[in-house]
C-alpha cells in the first residue's frame, strides 16, 4: 500500500488492472491440442472471458499496427513473438473487459514470456490447464481444420512442434513443480475432453 514499488507497478500496469482482483487460468498445450475449442465451452459454462494470445496477435496484424509485419513473419515461421508485444495486448484486453476472470490461451510459450508476464502484471495463474495430446493427432487436426491460417502448413507445423517441445513444455514443467498443472487427456473427441475439463473447473474455480 503506497510504497514506491506499488506505485511503480501501478504505473506499469495501468491503474484499472492493478485495482481489479483478477483471476487468470493459463490454457496450454501443443498446436492443435484443442485449446481454443475447449475455451469456448468453458466460457459458456463458467463465466470466463477467453483471451487467445494467437488471436490477439493476428488481430494486431490486421489492424495495420507498426508491429504487424514483424508479428506476421514470426507466426509464419512458428517463432515466439517478443514478450512485450504479447503482454501489452493481453493487458489491454483485460483492462477493457468488465470481467475479472480470464482464460489466457496459448501463452506463456516460453520461460521469458512467463517471468515477464508475472513481473509486469503481478498476476500469477490460479492454475494451468494443460491439454496433453499425441503429436500425430495434433498434426491431423491442424492439417484438416481449414481456418485459412498461414501457419497451418506442414513446414510451419513442424517448426511449431519443435518450439513447443523446446520452449513451451518447460513452462508446463515449471508450473507442475508448483502443483499448478491440471492435465487433461486431449486426444479424444471434443465432448469427452470437455467432461474432464468440467471436472477441473467444478473443483478448482
Ligand atoms: N504466438 C506467439 N506468442 C503467443 C501466442 C502465439 O508468438 O503468446 C505466435 C506463435 O508464432 C504461434 C502462433 O502465434 O506459433 C499461433 O499461436 P496460436 O496459439 O494461435 O496457435 P497454436 O500454435 O496453439 O495452434
Ligand atoms: Mg488457438
Note down, in words, how this protein is organized.
Helix content is 59%, strand content 13%. With 205 residues, it is α/β, with parallel strands linked by helices. The chain folds into two domains: 89 residues, Rossmann fold (3-Layer(aba) Sandwich); 71 residues, no CATH class. The protein has a five-stranded parallel β-sheet, sandwiched between helices. It is globular. The two termini are 28 Å apart. The N terminus is likely disordered. The site of magnesium ion has 5 residues, from helix 3.
Which secondary structure elements does this structure contain, and how are they paired or packed?
Elements: H1 4-13, H2 15-19, E1 23-29, H3 35-46, E2 49-52, H4 53-62, H5 68-76, H6 83-96, E3 101-105, H7 111-121, E4 127-132, H8 135-144, H9 154-177, E5 181-185, H10 190-204
Parallel strand pairs: 1-3, 1-4, 2-3, 4-5
Helix pairs in contact: 3-10, 4-5, 6-7
Bound molecules: uridine-5'-diphosphate and magnesium ion (MG).
Describe the sheet with the most strands: 5 strands, parallel
CATH topological fold name of the largest domain: Rossmann fold
Mean pLDDT: 93
Considering DSSP H and I runs of 4 or more, what fraction of the residues is helical? 55-70%
Form type: globular
Widest beta sheet: strand line-up: 2-3-1-4-5
CATH architecture term of the largest domain: 3-Layer(aba) Sandwich
* Tally of individual domains: 2
Residue runs with pLDDT of under 50 for 5 or more positions? 1-5
Helix and strand pattern: HHEHEHHHEHEHHEH
